[in-house]
UniProtKB/TrEMBL annotation:
ATP binds at M183, L184, H208, F209, R265, G287, Q296. Its EC number is 2.8.1.4. It catalyses: [ThiS sulfur-carrier protein]-C-terminal Gly-Gly-AMP + S-sulfanyl-L-cysteinyl-[cysteine desulfurase] + AH2 = [ThiS sulfur-carrier protein]-C-terminal-Gly-aminoethanethioate + L-cysteinyl-[cysteine desulfurase] + A + AMP + 2 H(+); [ThiI sulfur-carrier protein]-S-sulfanyl-L-cysteine + a uridine in tRNA + 2 reduced [2Fe-2S]-[ferredoxin] + ATP + H(+) = [ThiI sulfur-carrier protein]-L-cysteine + a 4-thiouridine in tRNA + 2 oxidized [2Fe-2S]-[ferredoxin] + AMP + diphosphate. It comes from the Bacteria. It holds the Pfam family THUMP. Pathway: Cofactor biosynthesis; thiamine diphosphate biosynthesis. The keyword Isomerase does not apply. Belongs to the ThiI family. One of its GO terms (cellular component) is cytosol. Residues 60-165 form the THUMP domain. It is found in: Cytoplasm. Its main location: cytoplasm. This is Probable tRNA sulfurtransferase.
Length: 401
């Protein structure tokens, strides 16, 4: 017997009260995008669950895609059967026989959303369990740790059978938390921060500071490749490349060396905030982790953060580098991040940046020069690239032949 659908459970969405329909719609959209390569599937959604009807498409491949969709708590390959008891008995037997290997144990787990059904939970247990024991020689019951757990879910419209529950990615559906700018360097941390922010439903646009000729085209390619990985989650991501050379040169001329890093960060934040405003985002995401480097002490954050009231989200703030690296490995960005190209922040690094910069001092140093026109220029002269995932490009390429 073959599964004909996949039952999707929502998890956290189901706590969303009046906004629930909006969340379900967003999730439905993500599922549709992720399953675009399977044109025959059909999606049915209701308040508390969603079904992907396979219609002959490859269930195994679809399961792999579903594992990466945010907003899904868990899912199960399932079969829809008629509520007739004889039909239920036969379908249960077909399913368990197809999974059964010699000497295995099973149990039946009934769940009745519709209490008017002719069998109650005990009745289902006895009728179906008895039928299976009689029909499959060697099959034994184990209610604690069964090899096969046959879930029988009785609903008004039909009964659903499933034997396996697969963990979903969790989080909230994409786009359900509004839009934010991700400050994306070529390093290990910021792509992971972007991934975690997306996991909580944020729509992300990446902003990268680029300082030619001090940073090379190769370092820009690296950021495009990182964006491509993040694009797998959405189907596409906007990458905004900011020309930063003029600002950095002004900083080098105007600001004492030990404060240049603090001012560089302040300028990056002001520019990102300008872009955010233009693109109607509501927050800025960074890959900062407390105490990791001089610019990431609380004293530094206090001095840097002063330039904006916009919420700065720092998903990695309490994480250790080893844990961040593990996540980077999981989301497959580590190898790209490890490519050895320089970042704009590493080119003019002072030998001893302040780990405890003073807000008043940095304000004082910056007061001798008007950075605003340079900031406006950077905001206005950005290059905007829409980055698509790798396999998407391949399919475009294929269609040329
Ligand atoms: P990452 O591994 O993300 O580069 P990092 O530990 O190297 O982080 P920093 O270089 O101090 O830390 O950068 C801190 C944060 O500032 C980054 O996580 C990123 O969000 C932002 N950032 C740094 N450089 C750039 C850049 N060139 N363009 C955009 N954002 C940047
Ligand atoms: Mg970096």
């Amino acid at each position: 017997m073959k599964y004909d659908r996949i039952l999707i459970r929502y998890g956290e969405i189901s706590t969303k009260g009046r906004n629930r329909n909006k969340f379900v719609d967003k999730l439905r959209k993500s599922v549709r995008i992720a399953l675009a390569p399977f044109p025959n599937i059909k999606i049915e959604s209701s308040r508390d669950r969603m079904y992907v009807l396979l219609n002959g498409e490859d269930g195994i491949e679809i399961i792999e895609k579903l594992k990466n969709i945010f907003g899904i708590q868990s899912f199960s390959p399932a079969i829809k059967v008629d509520r007739d008891v004889e039909v239920l008995k036969q379908a249960s037997l077909d399913l368990v026989s197809s999974l059964y290997k010699e000497g295995q144990t099973f149990k039946v787990t009934p769940k009745r959303s519709d209490k008017t059904y002719e069998l109650n939970s005990d009745g289902i247990n006895q009728t179906i369990g008895g039928h299976l024991l009689q029909s499959i020689p060697g099959l034994k019951v184990d209610v604690k740790k069964p090899d096969i757990n046959l879930r029988i879910e009785v609903r008004k419209e039909a009964i659903y059978l499933s034997c396996e529950t697969i963990q979903g990615a969790g989080g909230l559906p994409m786009g359900s938390s509004g839009k934010a700018m991700l400050m994306l360097s070529g390093g290990i941390d910021s792509p992971v921060a972007g991934y975690l922010a997306m996991k909580r439903g944020l729509e992300i646009e990446a902003v990268h500071f680029f300082s030619p000729p001090f940073t090379s085209e190769r370092s820009k390619e690296k950021v495009i490749d990182l964006s491509r990985k993040l694009a797998e989650i959405y189907g596409a991501i906007t990458l905004i490349i900011v020309p930063f050379t003029a600002v950095q040169q002004a900083i080098r001329e105007q600001i004492p060396e030990n404060y240049s890093m603090t001012t560089t960060r302040r300028m990056m934040l002001r520019i990102t905030d300008g872009i955010r405003q233009k693109r109607e985002g509501l927050a800025i995401v960074t890959g900062e982790s407390l105490g990791q480097v001089a610019s990431q002490t609380v004293e530094s954050m206090f001095a840097i953060n002063e330039v904006t009231n916009t919420p700065i989200l720092r998903p990695l703030i309490t994480m250790d580098k080893t844990d961040i690296i593990k996540l980077a490995q999981d989301i497959d960005t580590l190898e790209i991040s490890n490519r050895p190209f320089e970042d704009c922040c590493t080119i003019f690094v002072p030998s001893s940046p302040k780990t405890k910069p003073k807000k008043e001092k940095v304000q004082h140093f910056e007061s001798f020069f008007d950075f605003e026109p340079l900031i406006q220029e950077a905001v206005n002269e950005v290059e905007t690239i829409i980055v698509k995932p790798a396999d998407d490009q391949q399919s475009e390429f294929k269609s040329l032949f």
